[in-house]
Recover the amino acids of this structure.
């Protein structure tokens, strides 16, 4: 058994003593993403219910809600011990899920409840995922991040694979309200995995930049994340990268809503289609994360993770401009999302491992929520304007090609800059 365990650890780039942390990190992401991806098809269904032509308003509402959450999270991060930030935040969101379950049970066809849930889940997913990565960037060194973040992201993809399957199978017998209660239970389970990971870290302190998860509060003011981004060219580069990423995602998301609403009219069928797409995406992402992401980052640097997908998406937009049909869209959407989960997201999180603890929580949260949702809102209105200007989607797809190329150029610069900042820490 020990020989097999050593071979497994070597194959997965796990060093002695890191096994328990890897299991806890995998479980954290698995439970979080299982719950979220059970609800993601529900959100898409609620978005379609509110009207495809109104999606830009939902994106704007999401941005406003994100702005409202920024000072609240900043206040918590400034005053709470770092080991308490995630459990308290996740506990609050679990209580929100219970409230929405009650509302869905009482008013299942209320369009305003559907819109409120769409906005809430769009804020929830960015904040909770960003916070989970903040904890990992705080607990693991830069070298460990290169080896392990791709593997840990596989836990997210496993959850993203099982979540849509559970949602597709259970939406009929449990209803939307039942799915929300089950997602709340998964979210509470992810808190337990985080607490174990923090205890492991306290027993095995790192000799480099990472600190104890129970260290004193970060201090500062609730808006410190925004000011830190404005002062740092590196953080501004990450913010630009996220805006371009959000723009590419939004252009494809609007096309998804339009094509699916035209192809499938039944709500339950729409939820099942969205869930099937999610399942295929996560299966491809898992294979890449386990066997490829970490090796690419170690041998070629973080930059390769940030450039590959944008270049592929530039070609994908050109394809959609020539063939704007459901089959082509599914291929491009699957490639984009699988590549984002397997390459772009781990690479993006590696960028933060070279930063101080306060930036890992506050600046990162500001970029992952406010900047991302701001990019969503702006690109949503841009996409709508392009659709109004042209009766066919070709103009929007060609614009997406240009955005994807700018996204690739920004990722290349960030990869080089991260390598420069990593050298003093490694030496």
């Amino acid at each position: 058994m020990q020989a097999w365990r050593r071979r497994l650890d070597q194959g997965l780039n796990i060093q002695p003593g890191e096994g328990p942390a890897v299991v806890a990190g995998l479980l954290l992401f698995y439970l979080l993403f299982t719950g979220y991806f059970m609800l993601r098809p529900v959100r898409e269904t609620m978005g379609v219910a509110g009207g495809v032509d109104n999606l830009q308003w939902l994106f704007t509402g999401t941005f406003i809600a994100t702005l409202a959450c920024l000072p609240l999270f900043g206040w918590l991060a400034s005053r709470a011990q770092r080991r308490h930030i995630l459990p308290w935040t996740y506990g609050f969101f679990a209580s929100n899920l219970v409230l929405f379950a009650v509302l869905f049970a009482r008013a299942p066809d209320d369009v305003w409840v559907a819109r409120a849930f769409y906005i809430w889940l769009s804020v929830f997913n960015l904040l909770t995922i960003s916070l989970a990565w903040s904890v990992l960037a705080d607990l693991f060194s830069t070298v460990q991040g290169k080896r392990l973040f791709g593997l840990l992201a596989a836990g997210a993809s496993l959850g993203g694979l099982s979540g849509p399957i559970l949602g597709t199978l259970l939406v009929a017998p449990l209803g939307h309200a039942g799915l929300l209660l089950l997602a709340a239970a998964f979210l509470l389970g992810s808190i337990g995995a985080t607490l174990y990971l923090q205890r492991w870290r306290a027993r095995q302190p790192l000799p480099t930049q990472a600190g104890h998860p129970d260290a004193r509060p970060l201090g500062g003011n609730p808006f410190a994340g925004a000011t830190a981004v404005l002062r740092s060219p590196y953080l501004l580069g990450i913010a630009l990268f996220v805006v371009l990423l959000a723009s590419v995602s939004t252009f494809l998301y609007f096309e998804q809503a339009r094509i699916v609403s035209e192809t499938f009219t039944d709500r339950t069928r729409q939820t099942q289609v969205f869930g099937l797409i999610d399942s295929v995406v996560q299966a491809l992402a898992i294979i890449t994360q386990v066997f490829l992401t970490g090796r690419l980052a170690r041998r070629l640097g973080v930059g390769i993770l940030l450039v590959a997908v944008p270049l592929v998406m530039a070609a994908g937009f050109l394809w959609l401009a020539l063939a704007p049909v459901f089959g082509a869209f599914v291929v491009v959407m699957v490639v984009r999302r699988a590549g984002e989960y397997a390459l772009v997201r781990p690479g993006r999180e590696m960028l933060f491992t070279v930063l101080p603890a306060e930036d890992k929580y506050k600046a990162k949260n500001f970029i992952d929520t406010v900047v991302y949702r701001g990019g969503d809102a702006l690109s949503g209105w841009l996409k709508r304007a392009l659709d109004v200007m042209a009766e066919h989607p070709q103009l929007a797809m060609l614009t997406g090609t240009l955005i994807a190329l700018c996204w690739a150029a920004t990722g290349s610069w960030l990869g080089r800059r991260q390598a420069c900042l990593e050298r003093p820490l490694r030496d």
Q: What stands out?
A: Confidence is low (pLDDT under 50) at residues 207-212. The CA atoms of residues 281 and 421 lie 33 Å apart. The chain has 13 helices and no strands. Residues 15-213+223-426 form a domain with the Growth Hormone; Chain: A; fold (CATH 1.20.1250.20).
